[in-house]
Amino acid sequence: MKQIGILGASGYAGAEVVRILLSHPLEKNLRVSSVSFEGKTLDSIYPALAAKKGQSLMLENADEVVAASDIVFSCLPNGFAEKTAKICQEGGKLFIDLSADFRFGTDEATYAAWYGKNYSYPELHSMSVYGLPELNRVAIAKAQIIGNPGCYPTSSELGLYPALVNCFAETEGIIIDSMSGVTGSGRDPSQASHYPECADSISPYKVGAHRHQPEIDRCLSQMAGLPVSSVFTPHLAPMGRGIVSTIYFRLKKPMTIEALHSAYRDFYEREPFVRVLPLGAFSSNHNVKFSNYCDISVHLSSNKAMGIIVSSIDNMVKGAAGQAVQNMNLALGIEETTGLLMVPPAF
Amino acid sequence: MKQIGILGASGYAGAEVVRILLSHPLEKNLRVSSVSFEGKTLDSIYPALAAKKGQSLMLENADEVVAASDIVFSCLPNGFAEKTAKICQEGGKLFIDLSADFRFGTDEATYAAWYGKNYSYPELHSMSVYGLPELNRVAIAKAQIIGNPGCYPTSSELGLYPALVNCFAETEGIIIDSMSGVTGSGRDPSQASHYPECADSISPYKVGAHRHQPEIDRCLSQMAGLPVSSVFTPHLAPMGRGIVSTIYFRLKKPMTIEALHSAYRDFYEREPFVRVLPLGAFSSNHNVKFSNYCDISVHLSSNKAMGIIVSSIDNMVKGAAGQAVQNMNLALGIEETTGLLMVPPAF
Amino acid sequence: MKQIGILGASGYAGAEVVRILLSHPLEKNLRVSSVSFEGKTLDSIYPALAAKKGQSLMLENADEVVAASDIVFSCLPNGFAEKTAKICQEGGKLFIDLSADFRFGTDEATYAAWYGKNYSYPELHSMSVYGLPELNRVAIAKAQIIGNPGCYPTSSELGLYPALVNCFAETEGIIIDSMSGVTGSGRDPSQASHYPECADSISPYKVGAHRHQPEIDRCLSQMAGLPVSSVFTPHLAPMGRGIVSTIYFRLKKPMTIEALHSAYRDFYEREPFVRVLPLGAFSSNHNVKFSNYCDISVHLSSNKAMGIIVSSIDNMVKGAAGQAVQNMNLALGIEETTGLLMVPPAF
Amino acid sequence: MKQIGILGASGYAGAEVVRILLSHPLEKNLRVSSVSFEGKTLDSIYPALAAKKGQSLMLENADEVVAASDIVFSCLPNGFAEKTAKICQEGGKLFIDLSADFRFGTDEATYAAWYGKNYSYPELHSMSVYGLPELNRVAIAKAQIIGNPGCYPTSSELGLYPALVNCFAETEGIIIDSMSGVTGSGRDPSQASHYPECADSISPYKVGAHRHQPEIDRCLSQMAGLPVSSVFTPHLAPMGRGIVSTIYFRLKKPMTIEALHSAYRDFYEREPFVRVLPLGAFSSNHNVKFSNYCDISVHLSSNKAMGIIVSSIDNMVKGAAGQAVQNMNLALGIEETTGLLMVPPAF
Q1: ∠D232-A241-B290 over CA atoms, to 5°?
Q2: Residue D53 confidence (pLDDT)
Q3: Three-class secondary structure assignment of chain B
Q4: Shortest Cα distance, chain D CAs vs residue B247, angstroms
Q5: Chain B contacts of A272, Cβ < 8 Å?
Q6: Of D309, D313, D271, which is closest to residue D288 (Cα–Cα)?
Q7: CA dihedral sign of residues B14, B19, B24, B26
Q8: What's the distance, CA A322 to chain centroid?
Q9: Residue C88: which pLDDT band, with cuts at 50, 70 and 90?
């Protein structure tokens, strides 16, 4: 019987980790924490999660939850993970962080530049692993501290991995134009997420200045084996869940669409959660909702100069909670897909 | 190993039965049919259903599917079920019909008046059962032909059952004001379901003339033990899934809100899929999406003369495919909730 | 040249008054105030309103705006109107209040019971007029203080006026089931208006307890000439603008649908902003958006016992700012429809 | 009194031309045609357009409408404009075509390659003008045949004009990533525009193969004075109206964001319908709905290598009917903005 703690369970990422784990077959006991709602039940905040039978989950103090847990999912805002990571590392607990705090490894300078904070425990970052299973599966299996990737980075990196590792793509001039559903901005209401102002419209934001830019570039550089500086533009789209990234790269040499498509299909053939669509199909978040899939479609520009990849995920699942559970499975040494093979609704 | 056939699997109800059964633990083999798409795979129509591993489901001829099946879900348009029901009855197969054809039992006159067609095999209707488990659980367990309820009727009937059976409600003057998501109109495009014309607006339709009116009245009459003639108004709402029915009835004698609420809570205490919300909460389809739950909230009018019940379901699950699988579980004698305890997403 | 002041112009109702007046042909000068955004321009909050040519409107202090104005639209929260009304009354200014403060005339008890506040200047309420032009046109033309109706009340009252004044409807047991777009909850973000929680779902709220209930009942009583106690239920619907009220009343004696329809059509024949739809059509907010129209469709229940009226408006126009301008036109003695005949978009 | 005919008035573009002209102050008489709905009134198809007073517009035969008109707006599908253009040219009538038929001037080869049809009257194309007023204002004023631009091209071309004509942008490697609302696919229902399949999701389509690609490239080449081959990707977004194009170009030499922004602001200073937003603001279709504005925001990529322009329009107004009326104004020699200065709703 595993003891699993979810910190920040009243936020969207935390609540989604809970939802996924509730259907996970691992023998387990869930404990949840929340600063704002300590003492309330999780279903008083999210009535959807009300169990017809059995007990409600009570939101507790984070320290108590950590102390009682073998596995800790930290779903707190950026900047709060290190202290708990330290406790977990010393206590032999598995620590999976859904914030940005453990996504930059030893590159403290970049983290500090974009997040305004230095590392308190640099040694923890040396031993942490960036939790993109398709890239780092072996390291994740041995890791005790896992930095779960951001939502935009997950869709972007999976969309570019075959092209970079197989050297089809010029590394200069890569463009990632991404649309995100409004759950991406979290549970707290704001003017940007106020229905009358975001419904029925597309709004770019933080153009040239989003914190996922350095995370993406760091990972793409690792994939390419040389420094990559991409251009990433996020937009808010009127949908609940989902990220659709349309990605452009110049081809190093001319390729047929068939060759480009085959390269992607072959590369991801054995990946359980990446579906390369048939030639002629178009990737959309419509087909991956509430699932851990990343759907990728492959295209050429009409002038044949560029490869165009569309990469879609559910930002809350493959872009957050589902990938975190995938990482847990790997780190526990159980089948990677356990509890994650939910079929996305067709409509 | 059960052989299960789904007829009309390319429609929304059929595809949702498939989706639910794909995660159902019963040892089984699925066969699917479609008139329009015979010879294609189901995931060529619904890419969401593409299996990463294993084979695609091929859409076959209905006759072959029926012949090969132990259990048949018929998801065809109204008027096509009887012939297959006959074959199933004679062949000892379980037949679950998601159209209106087996919802009226021996009341052929009402069926004929509203659906423009007489019964071909009246004896099949005598032995069929109306598949609302909360009302007919025992009969369903013994049934070979089950008429799965309509979506509006399911939400309405569950919302009124405690008030009618316990005689709080005047049976005269009951009003059911219902909102439905656009999946309720099926997969075929139409002007009414064209995004620019249905998004961002509420549209009543078939006011005083919807075919679910006689189905609702027939069931309410059974619950009340005397003839009930309700007033039911459907509206199309700009959402994918869900039905929210706001139901009004005059109280036979004054009741406190606490007493009314307790009556509902007690009545449904042991029902696995009906959640009576805490006093002060409001039922919404938001909290039941992609699940088999019916969420009910209980209210009084400000002048205390009327009970107001809000009853919400996912029209494709408890209002169609989920309830059909619940009926299958009952008829097979396995635990009623098997494969149906999916937790609805909180957002 | 009229000086027109809009108080609370940074809120939704205020900004919509500005938008409508910008296209109004009256020779005028607009001044705007805001507590929260004093010193900023209105288009810094609402970029849609940016004038390509000419100057931005600067948000000023309310006292200065009132002092400089001949006509004052007060778009402040409930409870703030009286002081300004007093100044306007003494200064010979026209005062149009979009809050609830002047909707209850001499019925201070009801106002106090529902809004938790007594009148400071009861004499102002004696001279104020409830600004529903279809009911009070003559009085509005002579008024100096006008209480602009609420959004739900406008749709409800126009939907019931012919039935009550012509005595078709039983006054007991009237039910008003209303859907509102999210702009109805104003500009301030909240959990209820947070996109991921209100999109794609219908949520009833304040059932049996909404402040528009007494306003509706007061007006219906005036129309019927005897006390009416209706049952009103508001719901939040996933749309920006619009109210759709489905209204049920028992017929005093049997009527054909043709007779009921004719009665409505004749009654509203000369009203410039009420469109009674052809028999067989269904009223929807889709067709009145951004316009001052109220679209009414007339139906009978299938059991012929009840009249069913669907009444749709744009909550921000006929339900707020448009009706306020209509009242201004009347009070100024100019053609009532001036600046208000915008054609609603067809899609 | 001008006689104005709108052919194909039952389609979205045609109905929107009617709506705009109904509020246009020109003394005029409107005649409308429709193949599918001849003999019906326009408001029987679009109830929003029902006039409270005055007569409905009757849909007539196109030939009769053309014969009776001084000005003809042709809103028919691609491939049907030439015959009518010929009649208009010979009859001294002004002809404004909203299809693609007159967008390619003398470049018959490109038109034939993408639209599968040769010119019947090449001489008409020699005299026709591409109706983008910001580019061709003088020529439009003298034109008798005007090819109104496509929706995607309008947003793209206005977004790139200053950068190309002032030579900031490398002409190689321009990327245009566009989102369109569902009205862009017209009035006819289809699987792609079926609410349950397009709501709540982003779907790219015709990647590398959309017919607006050659139109865009032709116009960009004219602006740049040398051949431009851009990469254009359309997506369907869950919104009614609007196009948001995010445009990427490499800077020929480094520029500060201030310099780039000033260049755009100065360039468009005197354009009545192009609003270059203040530095730091983001263009969104939210702020241009139902208006003839094009809102442009100016950005730099984080690596400073690329200019990023976001260009938003209402696809039915500046992207179709509004621009057509703007062209009519120019061709008639009346003030260009007549009837087009509607203020977009702020929410």
Answers
A1: 130
A2: 77
A3: CEEEEEECCCCHHHHHHHHHHHCCCCCEEEEEECCCCCCCEHHHHCHHHCCCCCCCCEEECHHHHHHHCCEEEECCCCCCCHHHHHHHHHHCCEEEECCCCCCCCCCHHHHHHHHCCCCCCHHHHHHCEECCHHHHHHHHHHCCEEECCCHHHHHHHHHHHHHHHCCCECCCCCEEEEEECHHHHCCCCCCCCEHHHHCCCCEECCCCCCCHHHHHHHHHHHHHCCCCCCEEEEEECCCCCCEEEEEEEEECCCCCHHHHHHHHHHHCCCCCCEEECCCCCCCCHHHCCCCCCEEEEEEECCCCCEEEEEEEECCCHHHHHHHHHHHHHHHHCCCCCCCCCCCCCCC
A4: 26
A5: 52-53
A6: D313
A7: positive
A8: 8
A9: very high
Contact B343 A19 (CB under 8 A): yes
Q: How far is CA A313 from CA A200, A232, B48, D11, in A?
A: 21, 17, 12, 35
Query: What's the full length of chain C, in residues?
Result: 347
Name the nearest CA neighbour of C128 among C91, C93, C97: C97
Phi-psi region for residue A248, left (φ > 0), alpha (ψ -120 to 50) or beta? Answer: beta
Percentage of residues in chain A with pLDDT exceeding 70? Answer: 100
pLDDT tens-digit readout, C255-287: 999 999 999 999 999 999 999 999 999 999 999
| Residue C208 burial (CB count, 10 A) | 17
Predicted complex: ipTM over 0.90: yes
Number of CB pairs < 8 Å for A and D?
A: 156
d(CA C191, CA A179): 23
Structure tokens at B276: 């009576």
**Domain B152-315 sits in CATH 3.30.360.10:** yes
Identify all chain B residues contacting C289, using CB atoms and an 8 Å cutoff.
Answer: 200-201
Question: What is d(CA C345, CA D7) in angstroms, rounded to the nearest whole number?
Answer: 19
* Domain spans of chain C, in order of start: 2-149+318-332, 152-315
Q: Which token pair is C282? A: 């269904």
> Burial code of C71-98, b = ≥16 C-beta within 10 A, e = fewer?
bbbbbbebebbbebbbebbeeebbbbbb
**A2-149+318-332: CATH, from 3.40.50.720, 3.40.50.2000, 3.20.20.150, 3.20.20.80:** 3.40.50.720
Contacts of A273 in chain B (CB under 8 A): 52
pTM of the model: 0.98
